[in-house]
Structures are given as structure tokens and as C-alpha cells.
Design a protein that fits this description.
The protein has 194 residues and is mainly alpha-helical. It has four helices and no strands. Helix 1 packs antiparallel against helix 2, helix 1 runs parallel beside helix 3 and helix 2 packs antiparallel against helix 3. It is rod-shaped, with a radius of gyration of 33 Å.
Length: 194
């Protein structure tokens, strides 16, 4: 299973490197070429999401003892994915501003202060969205830890219950042995008297 995970990791690294390169090119291109690149990056981001889902499934199949290491790797890949999506959104925002200006025939210099204000507002909204997403992820991680802790607690309780039953059986055997020794002692005493 870990070999499948590592194969997914390699695919993830290759795809994210390509996406990062393409995101950097988006603001520099124009027209149809830019539109095609945006669509291409969107498709590759979907592939990366699917890869992360496969990796998540693989991690769930790994024994609990070694799952922690893979979980932390998966978590860092998810964070990298979020950063890519954020960068892609920002490059698309810049791209949509340019398209809007072209369609409306606006001179970018005439409404530059409005554009700056809009970009600042969008950046602020993106930051707030990111904060909400981070909080949601933290809550989800906390919930997952609570579930895992509950499972460990249940296993410990089951083990303690088994140990208690063993101790009770041993105590019963000890009582029986003690009773048998008492009988044996009485019989021997009786035999000695005769």
C-alpha cells in the first residue's frame, strides 16, 4: 500500500510543478492562449484533487501504527494544494479584470484607483475565506483526533475487561485449589490418626 501512496506522491509532485509553472504564465499571456491555459490549469487541479482523494484512501488502509507519518505527509500535500488554488484564484482575478476592461473598452489607467480598491477587497475576501477554511480544517482535524482517541479508549477498555476476567478466573482456581488442599489436609490428618 505504501508503494501506491509513494506513486501518488510522485504524480502529485509532477502535476503541482506543472501547475505552478502555468499559473506563473497566466498573467503574461493574452486572448485565446490565456483562456486555454486557465482551462488547462483548472483540469489539472481537478486531477490533483482526485490524487489527494486516492492518497487519503490509501492512508486509511495503512495499519494504525504507521498511519501517523502518512497522515502528516498527506496534510502537507493538502496545504500545498490549497496554496495552488489560492494562487490560481488570484491569477484568474487579474485575468478577469483584464478581460472586463477589454470588453467594456475601459482604459485601465482611468479607473486604476477603482481596480486597486477592487483588488484589495478581493484579496481581503480571499484572506477571510482562507481563514474560514483553515478553521474548518482545524475543527475537522480535532474531530478526527477525538474519534481516534475514542477508538483507542475502547480498545483499552476491552483489554482491561479481558484482564479482569482472567484475574477472576485465576482467583476462582485459587479458591478451588485452597479448598482441595483443605480436604487433602483433613484426609491426611484422618489417615494419620488411624
Amino acid at each position: 500500500m505504501s508503494s501506491d501512496f509513494e506513486s501518488y506522491e510522485q504524480d502529485f509532485g509532477t502535476l503541482t510543478a506543472e501547475i505552478t509553472n502555468k499559473i506563473g504564465k497566466i498573467p503574461k499571456l493574452g486572448g485565446e492562449e490565456k483562456t486555454q491555459l486557465v482551462l488547462n490549469v483548472d483540469k489539472q487541479l481537478e486531477e490533483v484533487r482526485e490524487l489527494l482523494e486516492q492518497m487519503d484512501l490509501e492512508v486509511r488502509e495503512i495499519p494504525i501504527q504507521s498511519r501517523g507519518m502518512y497522515n502528516s505527509r498527506l496534510k502537507s500535500y493538502k496545504q500545498e494544494m490549497e496554496k495552488l488554488e489560492k494562487d490560481f484564484k488570484r491569477s484568474r482575478i487579474a485575468y478577469s479584470d483584464e478581460v472586463r476592461n477589454e470588453l467594456l473598452g475601459e482604459d485601465p489607467g482611468s479607473s486604476e484607483s477603482q481596480l486597486i480598491k477592487l483588488r484589495e477587497e478581493r484579496a481581503h475576501l480571499l484572506d477571510n475565506t482562507e481563514k474560514l477554511e483553515r478553521s474548518s480544517r482545524r475543527l475537522e482535524a480535532g474531530y478526527q483526533i477525538a474519534v481516534e482517541t475514542e477508538q483507542v479508549g475502547q480498545e483499552i477498555l476491552a483489554n482491561l475487561n479481558t484482564d479482569r476476567e482472567k484475574i477472576q478466573r485465576a482467583r476462582e482456581r485459587l479458591r478451588e485449589t485452597d479448598a482441595n488442599l483443605g480436604k487433602s489436609s483433613r484426609i491426611l490428618t484422618g489417615m494419620l490418626r488411624r
